[in-house]
Specification:
213 residues; 4-stranded mixed β-sheet; 3-stranded antiparallel β-sheet; 22% helix
Length: 213
């Protein structure tokens, strides 16, 4: 399925934080070292009339999460098992943008029940390519953000990043990581790097250098 968010969640998010091998889409994913950047704790905000990161893609939830109306049950094969997912596939949506984006101002109309793929942004994993490589977790601009269509008719993601660590930002990052852990556990991954990362954040260890997990 084109623009399937589950593929990104599994092959990037879960692959980056797992401590155990898993199979997805006939591919074996093996744990790699994960370096966490101090930029993980940057403050961010999204100006109006952007919507650059809101093109049409699947909106996916696990059963314990609150969902908007219109979700459909489907399953994905993970480690030889069928995992139930609740999704809004947007197959009927012919627009470039997500059906829940208000194009008059670039704001989400289901912000309180956003899917995990939306909530986790702009935290981002940079994935190592070779077997001996490592992955990196931080808060970064989109790699091809310059090409994103925006609701004001222009191009270029308008996200803003501020190198200012606060309790509010720290708590927001922890909440996102906790939701990632919830997804990992739902998929059956019992060992991940997430608890150690959260512990390091709470000890204020992620300040001015990369930490390896």
């Amino acid at each position: 399925m084109k623009h399937d968010s589950i593929d990104k969640i599994v092959t990037v998010y879960l692959a980056a934080i797992t401590e155990e091998q898993f199979m997805y889409d006939a591919q074996l994913f093996t744990p790699k070292p994960l370096k966490v950047s101090p930029m993980l704790l940057r403050a961010t905000y999204c100006p109006e009339n952007c919507g650059g990161c809101c093109p049409k893609f699947t909106l996916d939830y696990i059963p314990v999460e609150q969902t908007p109306k219109g979700v459909q049950e489907r399953s994905v094969r993970f480690n030889g098992k069928q995992i139930k997912i609740l999704s809004i596939l947007q197959n009927e949506n012919k627009d470039h943008f997500c059906k829940f984006l208000d194009k008059s101002n670039g704001r989400c109309t289901i912000h309180e029940v956003n899917p995990f793929s939306c909530v986790f942004e702009p935290l981002r994993f940079r994935m190592g390519i070779t077997v001996n490589d490592f992955n990196v977790l931080g808060c970064y601009p989109f790699g091809r953000g310059w090409s994103f269509k925006t609701t004001d008719g222009g191009r270029g993601a308008k996200c803003r990043f501020i190198n200012h660590v606060s309790v509010k930002v720290r708590n927001q990052v922890i909440q996102k990581l906790e939701r990632l852990q919830q997804w990992a556990e739902y998929f059956g991954l019992k060992k991940t790097k997430v608890p150690a990362i959260i512990a390091a954040i709470n000890r204020f260890e992620i300040k001015d250098k990369l930490l390896t997990f």
